[in-house]
Amino acid sequence: MTATETNNPRWWGDSHTSNWDRIKEAMRRDWEQTKSDLTGGDMGTDLRQDASDTLDQARGKQPIPMGDVPNPMDADDVKKAARAQEKVALALDAEFERGVKPVPVPGDRMRWEDAELPMRFGHGASTHYSDNWDDTLEPKLRADWEASYPGRSWEEARELARTGWNHARPRV
pTM of the entire structure? Predict the structure, then answer.
């Protein structure tokens, strides 16, 4: 079931759809970049998409390249890439020495088609509920999810919904 083939939660309105339509391509690009980053390029696509690109694209302040065309590289990207590679290498070395195994990245669950619906739900829920995501709100979110998307497990959707929620909330 894709996000366009769904029943919506009872609180979902045209403004939620409009907001999601505006940001979903930026979120998809962020998803592909995260997969690429976490798997060393074995999965996903390196789009040179960082958090500032995602936020600027979602806000309409930066154009979104077509399809899987990478964002133009700027001087900051070059510096960030060098720092990131050094940090990752140091972290992996330290984990290896401590005997920590890398976190496995699930294959099929990493497809955008599987991630979009829960992320869309979380994004919409964050604009509907003024509360913080906590133990009091989560049962409401779970009930909304289960009523709207029967057959889709809340346990499998929860973290992706939380990602959508966090992307919609301002950082403090």
Answer: 0.54
